[in-house]
Design brief:
By secondary structure, the protein is α/β, with parallel strands linked by helices. It folds into two domains: about 10-235, P-loop containing nucleotide triphosphate hydrolases (Rossmann fold, 3-Layer(aba) Sandwich), CATH 3.40.50.300; about 240-315, Alpha-Beta Plaits (2-Layer Sandwich), CATH 3.30.70. About 30% of the residues lie in helices and about 25% in strands. It has ten helices and 14 strands. It has helices at about 55-60, 85-90, 105-115, 125-135, 150-160, 180-195, 230-235, 245-255, 280-295, 310-315, and strands at about 15-25, 30-40, 45-50, 70-75, 80, 90-95, 165-170, 195-200, 215-220, 220-225, 240-245, 260-265, 270-275, 300-305. The strands form three sheets. The chain has a six-stranded mixed β-sheet, with helices on both faces. Helix 3 packs parallel to helix 5 and helix 4 runs antiparallel to helix 5. The longest helix has 16 residues, at about 180-195. It is elongated, with a radius of gyration of 23 Å.
């Protein structure tokens, strides 16, 4: 399956990012394998995948911190290798690991990063104001003493303080609580409304729905690029949710069912797909229920579910 591609109606003049067959190796390990995609100007574009999938390597190439072994990438029309000096003035980058100065205060970190780009916090305050409003009560606190969520908001402020034309955020919500995650994505929505192109990566599949389009990345390869609805809509077969009091034993039993396609735990439910592609969903549901009854799981219930991005990712990477 080809995962290349930005919007079909787009073109180079509309693309904020264009990547063509980028490959990067570290010794015998291929971190990125002929990756191709495009991001349209103004998009909130997400890379979804587990740790080790290649997200950080890709982001470091796109902000000119790594050189690819093969292929070509442009950001804002600038080649990430040849035009790296001009590119670095126009991108904002938030690394996955907190990389600000822990002994400086919130205000000192912001002032420093603004000065690096030849500007001031006061001059660029309008851009960072929605985020800084939440940080201002802690402006004299050392960065090391901030909570995880506040550290991420400070890092976002520092990435925005020079008014970049595009923003790259590498797993910005990893390790923060659910409320801080939601607040951070709300801030990204505000930035998108202002027209800022944002490329973000996350291992959290549930965050995919906040993006305009997403790319599923696994072991250095793109396994799908589409809208979140497009990704889930292409699931291709009925998905059933199975509940049973003894979930583990029921899971093991279901995996022995002759028609089982896939069976895996998903929270307090088991997600089941059938190997019979042409069987009606009502028949599959009744057959699975009958099988579980015969195996001693009379309390089991079986109902159709709507696939999630995580289900789609599992299906596309099962092989």
């Amino acid at each position: 399956m080809s995962a290349h591609t930005g919007p079909s109606e787009g073109g180079p003049h509309r693309d904020a990012v264009r990547v063509d067959s980028i490959t990067r190796r570290f010794g015998s390990t291929t971190a990125l394998d002929k990756v191709s995609f495009a991001v349209e100007k103004g998009e909130l574009f997400g890379f979804i995948g587990p740790d080790g999938g290649g997200k950080t390597t890709l982001f470091r190439i796109l902000v000119s911190l790594l050189v690819p072994d093969a292929g070509r990438a442009t950001v804002l029309g600038l080649d990430v290798v040849k035009d790296y000096r001009a590119l670095r003035l126009r991108v904002g980058y938030m690394a996955g690991r907190f990389s600000l100065y822990p002994d400086l205060s919130v205000e000192e970190n912001l002032t420093f990063f603004a000065s690096v780009f030849g500007t001031t916090v006061q001059r660029e305050f309008e851009r960072i104001e929605p985020i800084y409003a939440q940080l201002e009560p802690f402006k004299d606190r050392r960065a090391a003493a901030l909570s995880g969520g506040m550290k991420q908001k400070l890092a976002l402020c520092c990435a925005l303080v020079h008014r970049p034309d595009i923003l790259f955020l590498d797993e910005p919500t990893t390790g923060v609580d659910a409320v801080s995650r939601r607040e951070f994505w709300d801030l990204l929505g505000v930035l998108k409304a202002g027209g800022l192109t944002t490329v973000v990566s996350t291992p959290y599949m549930d965050e995919a729905t906040r993006c305009d389009r997403i790319a599923l990345i696994h072991r250095g390869t793109l396994v799908g690029v589409d809208t979140p609805a497009g990704i889930t809509g292409a699931f291709g077969r009925p998905l059933l949710g199975v509940r049973a009091k003894d979930r583990y034993k029921a899971l093991l039993a279901l995996r022995t069912y002759e028609h089982a396609g896939s069976v895996y735990p998903f929270g307090d439910v088991m997600h089941y797909t059938d190997a019979r592609l042409d069987a009606p969903v009502d028949r599959i549901t009744s057959d699975v229920k009958a099988f579980l009854d015969a195996k001693g799981f009379a309390d089991a219930s079986v109902a159709r579910l709507t696939p999630t991005v995580e289900d789609s990712f599992i299906a596309r990477t099962a092989s």
